[in-house]
Amino acid sequence: MDIGTMWKNPRNSEALKMAVGSVTELALCVARGDLRNGFAVVTPPGHHASRSQTLDSIVFNSVAIAAKQLQEQLKVKKILIVDWDVHHGSGTESIFYTDPSVLYISLHRYDDGAFFNGTGDPSRVGCDVGRGYNVNVAWSGGLRPPMGDAEYLAAFRTVVMPIAHEFSPNVVLVSAGFDAAEGHPAALGGYRVSPKCFGWLTQKLMELAEGRVVLVLEGGYELVSLCDASQACVSALLGNEPEPLSEVELLRSPCANAVCSLEKVLHVQSLHWRSVRSMLNTVSLSYVKAERRVSAGSEAALVLSGLNMTVPHRRQLPNEPVEDDETHSTVSFTRRTFSFQSRS
């Protein structure tokens, strides 16, 4: 639809303004502490809109406008924007490309620039004082095979969460597009991320900013997966434990194309973030193997700590208790209980 034609219809223009206003008000309420978190179900998506460019019916970049209002009205110092829509948020990247107070992390299909509008190369890291505050997890390799839960778990484990924790945001905004969810045709993404996985990703982000997380609907065109993924995210925001992910996906290593894509991101971002410099050694591991390695490393550190405490002429401190190893039946993560979903 032509922008001029759309604005001539008062219903269209009113809906656009209402959408961006709703997102801004929700973000302000969460940042002030009036609400713990929230999910704005608005349309159309906005992450392609920049200061000077629109795309079809995308006129306002609601997430970017909300971030700017958080800065101006509440003086929020550090804002994290995570964009898991399968299309790159070129507008959001452009708006904050020189801003070190806003960390933008996008996970999107890229295919070496052949998918969608070709933006979102992993080498684009920001410029001037904003250098290092733009992170593009750019998936390449087409649909051979399609990216799924194992790949997105690996991205969050090796890139998103380490950098996010190091940045330590005051508020987290999520451009929550669900067109990477299973059920979308190749032209719209063709990936196979399960709705349950989006709930898990949401719960991980709630570790940040004391849980001040705001999700904003972006893309998502397959109604069943859109509804299921949204429900999983809302459930996580309410504090419920996410449903168990598929055992197959938890045990599966990320595909070779995903490993290559993540390695490119890590090589670039390791120049800016210390937290990801050791991740190249684990990027090809399945979620289960990676968690077991972390658990083994933690236990070894406790043992070494105990040995150091017994060195002569140093004060002896009581040893910390070590948790039992339960990796045969559960996968350990933030809350130490990640159960498998049995295969039928």
From TrEMBL:
Superkingdom of this protein's organism: Eukaryota
Official protein name in the record: Histone deacetylase 4 isoform X7
